[in-house]
Amino acid sequence: MTPSWIALIVLAIAAAGFVLARSRALRAAAREGRRLHSLPGYYGWTAALYAALPALLLLAIWLVAQPAVTRMMVWPVLEAEASANAVPSLMMADVQRLAAGLDAAVETGRLSREAARDLPAGEMRAAMAAQGVALGSEVTSATRDAALRWRRLAGVGHLARTIAVIGLALAGAAWGVSRAAPDFRARNAVERAMRGTLISAALIAILTTVGIVLALIFNTIEFFRLYPASEFFFGTTWSPSFGGGSELGILPLLWGTLYISLIALLVAVPIGLFAAIYLAEYAHRNVRSWAKPMLEMLAGIPTIVYGLFALLTVGPLLVEAFGRGGYLGLGWMQGGTAVMTAGLVMGIMLVPFVSSLSDDIINAVPQSLRDGSLGLGATRSETIRQVVLPAALPGIVGAILLAASRAIGETMIVVLGAGAAARLSMNPFDAMTTVTAKIVSQLTGDADFSSPEALVAFALGMTLFVITLALNVVALWIVRRYREQYE
Amino acid sequence: MTDIPQTGPLPDGQTGPRPGSLLVTDDRTKRRNRAEARFKAYGIAALAIGMAFLAALLWAILSNGLTAFTQTYVQLDVPLLEEKLDKDGDRDPAKLAKVSTFGYAPLIEQALVEQVEATGVETELAPKALSKVLSGSAAAQLRDRVLANPELIGQTVSVELLASSRVDGYLKGRVSRASLARDKNLDAEHLDLIDAWREAGIVEKRFNWSFITGADASDSRPEQAGIGVAMLGSLFMMLVVLVLSLPIGVAASIYLEEFAPKNRFTDLIEVNISNLAAVPSIVFGILGLAVFIQFMHLPQSAPLVGGLVLTLMTLPTIIISTRASLKAVPPSIRDAALGVGASKMQAVMHHVLPLAMPGILTGTILGLAQALGETAPLLLIGMVGYIATNYPEGVAEGFLSPNSAMPAQIYEWAKRADPAFYERAWGGIIVLLVFLLAMNLIAVLLRRRFERRW
Amino acid sequence: MNDMRTMDNTVLNETKITARDVHVHYGTTHAIKGVDVDIADRTVTAFIGPSGCGKSTFLRCLNRMNDTIPGAVVTGKIKIDEADIYDSRVDPVQLRAKVGMVFQKPNPFPKSIYDNVAYGPKIHGLAKNKAELDEIVEKALRRGAIWDEVKDRLHAPGTGLSGGQQQRLCIARAVATEPEVLLMDEPCSALDPIATAQVEELIDELRQNFSVVIVTHSMQQAARVSQRTAFFHLGNLVEYGETGKIFTNPEDSRTESYISGRIG
């Protein structure tokens, strides 16, 4: 039985439980001449929840666990052959495809149950081709045995799954119905269940973080087993080659990341800050009402658009000015993709980010401080520079840190605008690359996921995650403390 | 406030500790006022630069992208010769289907030659070279038409065939005679022909519906590429995001805002959520790759996986905005419900949640808009590099079979070598921005319509 | 301080501020409706009246703080020492150095006590060097009657002081720019009775050097600290005269109603 059928049956049992429990509660109340503790619907819901929740949970766990368990049990059959040649994950994939093909063949009637079991390894590939399942190579006897074992285990597993899940649903429903009596506090039970649901929804946030950390840590450890950590952190050369002998030093990537972020902040912070000051302190209400949303439009534009803008508009423009034969006659720039290109465009992207955060923060400075300063005969700019900004400084530092974290983690602009060459150079018109850009290029290539060239992406991701997390934690802490000061 | 210095003696009878009349601005004040004016000018300049950035961006998008919405077509009278297409003359569909596009190409070439003669253009181009003005898909286009309607065989039909991307570029001003010098796909001689045909009304630019509804095409046929299939991919992804993130986000927010006790565990969840909102999106891509594809073996490039990743990414945003909406409902509402004997859960579900709903929906729409434009995580789960040439066959396939998504498709086009694809990429951006604008507009209207002041 | 003082303080100093036919509009609200008043030098003048009567608005006209509120329009003439402060040649920045202001809520800057007081002298360039500035700060703090309490912690943040101390610091800050007029907008409304008494004592001392205008909610306070009192009602100046006379023998029935607590 397929999982969706099982789920449907469970839901049907839950519905039946609802009806039974509700009517039982009503009948019991009428017989005993008492009032129900809760509305009758709650008794129904109790039974339905007892029936559906544990059963569906079991089904979900089973769906995730069964393939993993089966793989573990089939593996010994393949082990001997694996040590000799091919990559384990690919062999396992072949086994699974073969097993699925045999299933399909039996289902369509092309092979009988017995024939499927007894088919020699040599004939399997042809049989599968007839079924429309393409296999990479001739089927070895170990693969055949493994596939047959897979089928057997899967069959047993599926049967057990059906029985266990439906049995659990029936038991839950029965228990729920049996409890439907006037003095049972059904509403409280239902609300406890709802509360549990709410808590598990909130826990997804934690699960996501745990998932990120686990995904990064396991693969990073795997990477450091294949490639020394000291060379990764302190190496100054980045030259992956899928044939082996890669040099995977993170320093050139970190340099490119920081250089681009620095240029982005040099663009975004003054412009964003002054725009925020103007909007908060000088602008007429009418100007503010259209200028602020316009500026924030920049924040709503997807980063792919900025990437394209860097690649196709800003890059060529910069080359025209700074490139060889450009009208400034400097010849500093070789191609359109460069640190400057990505940095400038990223700066544009960050302007609204800096300005709207600063705007909030400047507005949180109490008006009484401005009045005090103006009342002493200070000009507006003196008031802003000497009273408002110092008071808002922690918040603004927090905003800049958040912007820096954004810049470091930004991907699309650097993938399209910064170039692919990893180098340690001071020239901002050189093409360089960043941590994020290399995560993309190492994971979208054709590399096997178990090679150091692909696994390095996880170590890069880990580095990125740690840096941005640290920046965020510090920034959020500063901003929160700042807000509390004036609340 | 003026800088006009007053001449003449100062009025006497000053009693203040400092000399100087209010009517005379002293030097120091003048200097301070100049500093004030400068400071204000910096602010205006910063705002103006910000606006200029926005204008430059919009100009780049519109000037480069609008041309993608028109496409050049060539009007030809093609004789559908029976002896080439249906030797037996029995119109058997199975046999007709066996004639490949190679069977149709000569017919088109012949039509081109005839058209050259009919319009009286002098050209030295061979018939084979003539067909370079048409898209490589022209023969397939004709074949599809014949297979759909076999009765046409034997007649001469007037068809509009897609012009090649170079010809299209020439009409749009992207390709010039000078730029063709190094291009083996088209010669200046073709352009003479096109000029003549343009005057005769045979070559024409029309609105390009197939860009909006069509599928992506191979590297060599930019004129045929459309964003329709990727749009569908995005739609399926957004459905997944909506169905998952709205209930989960609302449930999590209700718990945190209404039920959670103030303890370290709650603090942990809160800090977690605000940090997750600032984690780089590429990290969510790594998570999706490791968990959904490597560990759970879900299909690569599938909108389902994309939707799951984007859900995890959008959840913090939705939770933060939902909590703000719940917080905006005044406590008196809760007290009133509790006062008539409702349980806390009933007070929240029957009173607080409905009142907060407009705010929640606004936040959700804005979260969806953010997810719709997100590209980086999609790169890692294989939604780029997959060429979306076919529409999904059904709803289940829509979620599970490989597809692209709008931003991924735009990225894909931006990476291709032929600059004709850049126009498509900018055009794709216009389509994407129209969607984002619409979503934001809905959010703003929703807020205006239901905004409540307590 | 005793209430007898108001009786024997009938000597009128020369006029410092003259206001004629002053109107203030906020958008469509007509907040001040044609006020005429003469404010004497070296005297404490109190503005009293029910909330929303315009007394604070009028006070803010005297150093053009209303300029900082978008939509506020002031018409009429206000002269300080014969110079019209709404003349186009007058720089409000320069004016405010001459007409200092203390606000309802103590609003020390988030800086040290020293920097709070030195702020005004610094921006107006009153000190040539550090020693001079130190001197100005000390003098101002002494005038603000807070020197003894803070002289050992001049570099501690001003926000760390108690409410009454903060308000006296703000007064010292206003005094440091050597103003001729000191405007106080309900300076004691956020203070406890002991701090209020200290500030009131200080106001009485400030009379030696400045023309002080104080807006207050409390009639007792007006009676205690001022020599002259102006009663505002609904944007009009109803009655203006010797404090003793206003409180004992008002001419206008509205003043009498307010004093006796029937309106307010």
TrEMBL record, chain A:
Belongs to the binding-protein-dependent transport system permease family. CysTW subfamily. Keywords: Cell inner membrane, Cell membrane, Membrane, Phosphate transport, Transmembrane, Transmembrane helix, Transport. It comes from the Bacteria. The keyword Cell membrane applies. Part of the binding-protein-dependent transport system for phosphate; probably responsible for the translocation of the substrate across the membrane. This is Phosphate transport system permease protein. The keyword Transmembrane helix applies. It comes from Limimaricola variabilis. It is a multi-pass membrane protein. It is found in: Cell inner membrane; Cell membrane. Residues 254-475 form the ABC transmembrane type-1 domain. The chain crosses the membrane at residues 6-21, 42-65, 158-177, 198-218, 258-279, 299-319, 331-354, 387-408, 454-479.
Automatic annotation (TrEMBL), chain B:
Residues 231-443 form the ABC transmembrane type-1 domain. PROSITE patterns: ABC_TM1 (PS50928). It is found in: Cell inner membrane; Cell membrane. The keyword Cell inner membrane does not apply. Keywords: Cell membrane, Membrane, Transmembrane, Transmembrane helix, Transport. Signal peptide: none annotated. CDD domains: TM_PBP2. It comes from the Bacteria. Belongs to the binding-protein-dependent transport system permease family. CysTW subfamily. This is Phosphate transport system permease protein PstA. It comes from Limimaricola variabilis.
UniProtKB/TrEMBL annotation, chain C:
It comes from Limimaricola variabilis. One of its GO terms (molecular function) is ATP binding. It comes from the Bacteria. The lineage of its organism: Bacteria, Pseudomonadati, Pseudomonadota, Alphaproteobacteria, Rhodobacterales. PROSITE patterns: ABC_TRANSPORTER_1, ABC_TRANSPORTER_2. Residues 17-259 form the ABC transporter domain. Keywords: ATP-binding, Nucleotide-binding, Phosphate transport, Transport. SMART domains: AAA. This is Phosphate transport system ATP-binding protein. The keyword Nucleotide-binding applies.
